[in-house]
Structure formats: structure tokens, C-alpha cells
Amino acid sequence: MESDQKNVEKYQSPLSSPQKLIVFCQGTILKIVDYLIRRGFFASDEKHDLVQHINLQLLEKGENIRKNYDGRVPLDAYLSVVVRNICIRYKETYTSRSLLRVPDHFFLEKTVDPNPGVFSKMVVSEEIERLETILSLYADEKEKLLIVFRLIVTKTITPEKILSYYGDISVKLLEDVFSVLSSLEQLKRKEIFKVLIPLVNSKEGKKSTPDTLRKWFDRRVQEIIHLINGNPPRSFYSKETLLILFEYYFEKR
Prior knowledge:
The chain has 253 residues and is an all-alpha fold. It folds into 2 domains: 2-103, no CATH class; 131-252, no CATH class. It has helices at residues 2-10, 12-15, 18-38, 47-68, 75-94, 118-136, 142-154, 159-166, 171-183, 189-204, 210-229, 239-252. The longest helix has 22 residues, at 47-68.
């Protein structure tokens, strides 16, 4: 995309060498480290060693960061993921302190690590419980929401999941829905609402459009983000990280 290329061009200077990348990243590093210390994840006397460790890691990873950065997000946002992953490894490898309260959602991104540590699993489990509590507030709408989230995140769904919410629908309508789903090699977000709207209209006795369903879903997503982040904020979920949390959620269901 054009915007992706513009980001790559915009950050050419800090990406030109690991040393420049470290200078560019210092604000992000300090913000993350200070936040973790305030939340009790690290002791204040660990700050200097942790910052030095992060800088050394960035020196080693600089070339890979340059190659892997594709411009889809601002460079500082991309680097914040790199830095927090370094913090995870540092905590699990170099310290023996008791595990204290962790910043919510901070370590939720999917990684290529096939053996995530006990600590990371604990954080994910806790966040899933928080999400389940919030979903319970939606009562009759919960399963309707989950069907949309499941299709967006996993791209698949079983007839049992459909029937668990939509219940008394005709066999033909169910067959039509799965006929469309099976014909879509890569289910796009806008197609999900087109597929589901006949089910919604059948259950609710309405003549809504796919766009009506999409707007309803988008409002609920914003509500969930607001609820899970809290006021004052205790977390910093976005649409993207919320979908990652739902990936873990569906793995447990």
C-alpha cells in the first residue's frame, strides 16, 4: 500500500544503522521500562541494567528490524513490540524475582516462539478471564458477537456454533450459509457481514443490510475496548490487539 511505503521512506534515517535506531528508540524504551517499574514488574534498581540490555539487543537485532519493517504501522509502534518482547525474555531469563502484577495486554501479541513461558501463559489466561467477564455483560448478544469475532479471527465456524445462537432456522438457510463460506478461500471482513445478515434477519424478523450489521459490530467492539481498557485506563487495547486476545480466547473454547 502507498501508506506503507511512505512509512518506510519516512523512517529511512533511523533504519539506516543500528546506532541511529537506538537513538530513535530511547523515548519508547524509557516509556515502557518506567511503566513496567510503576506496575511492579521490575524493581527501580533494575532500570539501568534493563535499559542497557535492551540497547544491546537492539544493536544485535538492528539489521533484522530493518529488513522486517514493512511500514504497516509507525516505526515507534513496531519497536514497542520488539522492546516488550525483549522485556519478557529478560524477565524469564535474567531475574529470579517473584512474578508481580503485569501490565494488562502488554505481552499478548502472537510470536513465533513455540514454547511460551509460564509467565506469558499466566498473563494470557488472566486477560481471557477479563474478556469473558465483559462478554457476559452482553447477555443475549454475546453469542451473536462471538460468531462474528470467530469468523474474523479464525475464518471458520461449525454448524453447531451457528445453531447455538440462531437456533430455529431452516435447513436450506443453514446450507446456503455454509455453501457461501466454503466457496470463499480467504474470507474478507466485509463478506462476513454479507454471509451472516440472512441469519440475523431470520432470527430478529428484520430486513437489515450487511452494513447495518457491520455498524452494530463496530460499536460493540469500541464498547469492549473501552470496558477492557478501563477508566482511568489500566490497559491500552486497540482493535488489532483485541483480535489477538480473541485468538487466544477461541483456542480455549
